[in-house]
Each structure stands twice: as structure tokens, then as C-alpha cells.
Amino acid sequence: MHSELPVFKRCCCCFPLRYGLLVWGYIKLAIAALLIVSIAMVIRSLTMAYHVYGLHERVFTFRLTVFIIFLFLVTLDFALSTVFIVGGHKKNLKLLTVYYYYSIGVWILSILFSLFIISTYFIYRGPYRSTSFYAVADNILECSSHFVSMVSQGYFLLLLRSEMLKLKSNCEFRFVNNAAQSECKMNCSKGKDTLGENNGVGCTAECHRVISDV
């Protein structure tokens, strides 16, 4: 059975789609910036602990490597969130497409990582985990947080896809001249002239004859 993904007109059922996505992007950008500063401070503290307090070299190397990798990933997310915000403000479909495929990759990796964490916890901690109310509540909260994170990321992807489809439909349309038996397709996009000045919206048309069945 063929089914299509839903197309949303608004963000969270009340906000305009593009502005809701931009707010989401700014929130992610702020979180990424805070994480970059925090990780940089942790790396600095770790380096000081190694030189001042004589932290074990293997432990220092392992922790430093982990934090550097984490810093790289967060910096990459910060850069691509900036690309998304610029693309959202300028309605640039190419920039939004780049961020869309990046988000799909991150979403899939996040699902795999969450499944790995949860399965590892229940496999290795299963025989020793407590059956008290607080322990069970902690397990439910842990699984729920992963689930909510995956659902929210999936919802954001659907919103971004809806905005991309909206931009495509606004920039491309077709019309058929029945008298001449021809079909034309027009693409509209913002561009600049040869002097580098903004000339508004430019359109290019492609026409071809339609073969009649009669």
C-alpha cells in the first residue's frame, strides 16, 4: 500500500511554518554554542589536572580524545545550524536541502545510539538492577527521554520537508496551451544581473509540443 508523508502548513499547529523552523534553528544554535564553551572549559580543566595533579596518562589521553571528538561534532552541528538559519531567512532551497540530509543522518545515528545505550543498560545491568519504585521510575524516565528526543527530531524533519515542498511549489509551475498543443514549464528564482545588482525574480521557461492522441 502506497502512503505519503504528511505535509504541514504550520509549526506546532499554530505558528507559521518558516518562522517556527527559524525559532527551532536559533534554539539549536544557542544550545550548540553553550556546549562548545562548556566542552572547551572541560578540556582546559582536564589539561590542567594532567599537568598540575599528575593525572594518569592513559586516562588523560582517552578523556581528551573523547572530548575533542565531541567538540568537533558539536562545532559541525553549530556550523550547519547556521547554514539552516541563513537558508531559512533567504528561502534558499539548496541550503535547506543540505541541512535536511544532514539532519536525516543525525536522526538515524541518534536512533541507533539510543537503542545501543538502552540495550546495553538492560543487558549488563539487568541482573543487578533494583526493583524499587525509584529505580523503575528512573528506567522509565530514561527510555522516555530517548523516545521523546527521537520523535521531536522526526517531527522537525517533517516540518523542514514541508517547507522545502512549499518553496518548490512557489518557484515552479506549469501551463498548457491547448490551441498550440504545447506545454511550458516556468522556473522562478531570485537572481542578480551582470552588474551584481539584485534584479528581483527571474523566470526561465521551457516549452515542448505535446503529441496529440487523436
Sequence-ordered SSE layout with sheet pairings:
Layout: E1 10-11, E2 15-16, H1 17-52, H2 57-90, H3 93-124, H4 133-171, E3 172-177, E4 182-192, E5 198-209
Helix pairs in contact: 1-2, 1-4, 2-3, 3-4
Kindly summarize this structure in a few lines.
The protein is α+β, with helices and mostly antiparallel strands. It has helices spanning 17-52, 57-90, 93-124, 133-171; strands spanning 10-11, 15-16, 172-177, 182-192, 198-209.
List keywords for this structure.
214 residues, 15% strand, 4 helices, globular, three-stranded antiparallel sheet
Describe the structure.
The chain has helices at 17-52, 57-90, 93-124, 133-171, and strands at 10-11, 15-16, 172-177, 182-192, 198-209. The chain has 214 residues and is α+β, with helices and mostly antiparallel strands. The protein folds into 2 domains: 10-171, no CATH class; 172-209, no CATH class. A 3-stranded antiparallel β-sheet has the order 3-4-5. It has a two-stranded antiparallel ribbon with strand order 1-2. A hairpin with a 5-residue loop joins β4 (182-192) and β5 (198-209). α3 (93-124) packs antiparallel against α4. The two termini are 35 Å apart. Mean pLDDT is 75; it is low at 191-201 and 207-214.
